[in-house]
Amino acid sequence: MSKKKTNKIVHSVRYLATEMLDAIDTEGAYSNILLNAIIEKEQLNSADIGLLTELVYGVTQRKLTLDYFLQPFIRKPQKMQSWVINLLRLSVYQIVYLDKIPDHAIFYDAVEIAKQKGHTGIAKLVNGVLRNFQRTGWQDWEEIPDQTKKLSIGASVPEWLVKKFIKDFGHAKAEKLLLSLQHAPYLSLRVQNPEKLDEIREALEKEGIETERSPISPVGLRVKSGKVTHSSFFKKGAITIQDESSQLVALFGKLEKADAVLDACAAPGGKTIHMASFLDEGSGGTVHALDIHEHKIQLIEENARRMNVSNRINTHLLDAKQADTQFSKEQFDVVFVDAPCSGLGLMRRKPEIKYVVTKQGITSLQEEQYNILTAVEQLVRKGGRLVYSTCTLAREENQEIVEKFLTEHPNHRVLPANSAVNENGDEKFPSEIVTSEGYIQIFPDDFGTDGFFICVMERVE
């Protein structure tokens, strides 16, 4: 009997969530990759997948808030094993934020998990903390007098990052931005042939997939319900899953059918494939896609085959900083640098990012980003374009990189966003995302997408 119970608890959603949360904390695992691996391994049903996703993302997203709730009930948290802390966070998250799960079910599973992973003493501690929490209630973070700490706890973002965002964007914008991270991200699609967008949208509805048009991407759809990967349009490469912000990058290349294109930082290949969709093999149009990891090159090639554009993409296992050893000066009509970055624009989709990013990390990334730009700029032909993009919100990785580059490379100039896609400037983007300098800056709270930065430059001599 006890053996049956043990096996059952080990494969329960809450046990799996505890294991995953601990791996994210102690091993630096990525929530999205880990979740996909566990779902495949455990062969969970749709209800369990939904709950596991909610628990892992919810607890990770609100970790600092949950620690604040638990603080009065744990004397020496630094002496507790990490999995015990994560089990308590998991249980408190369910009590506070999930209405449909009764407390007795939460307590029972927490105690059983504690017995399985630890011993009776830990099980008693977990039970005691949760009973006290239920009886006493939790402290309200909105009553914290210090405004920075209040926002840090409420949004579950480290204080140094809160201070940085307040400095960069002002308190009102920082607060709106950070609190918006608690909302789940949309699932967004890019339609491979934009001319068929409405036709595909209607056809998807017949397959049980309800969508709406993206508010920022002319080639994007948002999924309201339905399983996209089961769709015939997904399987045959007519649509692909891609965030709406990143869908804009390829558009700013203003690609022609015969263009020679370099994608200097290509993996996992979503933008590369979008670039290739504008090209024609018969006219000589080709994207040269670079990455430094063999498995990522394979991923680009797999995605290209599914989307039926592999005949327009050449992959290279090559560091972008050494691109001049493989390619000639002025070889390309358009060069894209979707630079490695801190990923602060992805905090809604990958919530663990906000706990691991450091000031020192941003500084070292600046050097890498600038070195890539300077290495590839000579490969752009006169009159060609250099498109720089990141999925971060840090000015140091965005505006400061571009400004330094333009100062030291006067042979490039900024093409303002609205005129970069259409010379007459009549294809307007929402005013919220176009900066005074002509860059694209998208915040997660603007339209519920990933945060993103894009700058289009032209080589003038």
From TrEMBL:
Entry's EC annotation: 2.1.1.176
Q: Does the keyword Cytoplasm apply?
A: yes
Q: Which Pfam families match?
A: Methyltr_RsmB-F, NusB, RsmF-B_ferredox
Coiled-coil regions listed in the entry: none
Reaction(s) this enzyme catalyzes, per UniProt: cytidine(967) in 16S rRNA + S-adenosyl-L-methionine = 5-methylcytidine(967) in 16S rRNA + S-adenosyl-L-homocysteine + H(+)
Question: Where in the sequence is the active site?
Answer: 391
Q: Which UniProt keywords apply?
A: Cytoplasm, Methyltransferase, RNA-binding, rRNA processing, S-adenosyl-L-methionine, Transferase
Question: What are the SAM-dependent MTase RsmB/NOP-type domain coordinates in residue numbering?
Answer: 177-460
Q: Which GO terms describe its cellular component?
A: cytoplasm
Entry binding sites for S-adenosyl-L-methionine: 265-271, 291, 319, 338
Annotated PANTHER family: NOP2 YEAST -RELATED NOL1/NOP2/FMU SUN DOMAIN-CONTAINING (PTHR22807), RIBOSOMAL RNA SMALL SUBUNIT METHYLTRANSFERASE B-RELATED (PTHR22807:SF53)
What biological function has been recorded for the protein in this entry?
Specifically methylates the cytosine at position 967 (m5C967) of 16S rRNA.
Protein name from the UniProt record: 16S rRNA (cytosine(967)-C(5))-methyltransferase
